[in-house]
Amino acid sequence: MATLYIDSNYAGVKSDGTPRYPFNTIQEAVDIAQNGESLIIIAGLYRENIKVAGKSLNFKGMDMGNARIEAPAPGPAIT
């Protein structure tokens, strides 16, 4: 099972979900993640509505008190 990394502050061109080249958005990681995989959310502000689409994923935060998800559109941040 893979572990995918997400960092809203990552400014690189290449993103593959590794610690060196994390995804910028949680949704990018959710879209390619398979059931049972872990998504490591690095501290930062994530302005997005996330659709998990019935997948069974493990969300983990690094410095969780400083990782925030704000939904820009009406409704819940995660569905």
Give the end-to-end Cα distance, rounded to a whole number of Å: 23 Å
Mean pLDDT figure: 91
SSE arrangement, N to C:
EHEE
Q: Are there runs of 5+ residues with pLDDT below 50, and where?
A: none
The global form is globular
Task: Find the structural class using helix and strand composition.
Answer: mainly beta
Question: How many β strands by DSSP?
Answer: 3
Strand proportion, as a percent range, falls in 25-35%
Query: What is the topology, as strand order, of the major beta sheet?
Result: 1-2-3
How many helical elements?
1
Helix proportion: under 10%
Instruction: Kindly provide the radius of gyration, computed on alpha-carbon positions and rounded to a whole number of angstroms.
Output: 12 Å
The biggest sheet amounts to:
3 strands, parallel
Could you explain how this protein is built, in words?
- The chain is mainly β and 79 residues long.
- It contains one helix and three strands, in the order E-H-E-E.
- Strand 1, helix 1 and strand 2 form a beta-alpha-beta unit.
- It is globular.
- The model has no long low-confidence stretch (mean pLDDT 91).
